[in-house]
Amino acid sequence: MNNVSFEAKPIDILQAYYRSINGVFDRDFPSEPPKYYNFTGNMTSIDVTSAKGTKVTMLNYGESVEIVFQGTNLLAEMNHPIHLHGFSFYLVGTGKGNFNNVTDPKSYNLIDPPEINTVALPKSGWAAIRFVADNPGVWFIHCHLERHSSWGMDTVLIVRNGKTRATSMRPPPASLPSCS
């Protein structure tokens, strides 16, 4: 995602975030691809080698979030079921070809968009989702095709605590055995 292939670490990100363990993840997931090209065109002459890393996106509690997923012709054009843990979201738009951030938002359904937790990213197309980051914690977002997830087609969103106890991440239960 955004030309970064996710690499899992031996320590899980939830534990690292909750316990403030440094060196497990980076907070610099790019907000857009490093370069733009015809994502749905012939990609044989373009170097699309992705960086590898454990990069997360940090969100403030209550922040309005829009994510646009762009399908590509990398390896093979196909649909991707993209799933976000911890949230339902609104599918505000889909389209064929490359997303245009000037013209495509004009066609968004902002009246009665479907509320879902998995979106079918169309083959050689795009899908735009919106949600409010109101569930503090560490949340995985990934392609539901397991092979793609194993290749790094996933990332993590961390929603920071709000200002009250009710809007903050709960501690693990005292009876929860630790992992070893």
From TrEMBL:
Family to which this protein belongs: Belongs to the multicopper oxidase family.
Protein name: Plastocyanin-like domain-containing protein
CC terms in the record's Gene Ontology section: extracellular region
SUPFAM superfamilies tied to this protein: Cupredoxins
Keywords: Copper, Metal-binding, Repeat, Secreted
Domain Plastocyanin-like: 29-162
Transmembrane annotation, as ranges: none
Organism: Salix udensis
Keyword Transmembrane helix applies: no
CDD domains on file: CuRO_3_LCC_plant (cd13897)
A GO term, aspect molecular function: oxidoreductase activity
Pfam families linked: Cu-oxidase_2
Compartment(s) where it occurs, according to its Swiss-Prot or TrEMBL record: Secreted
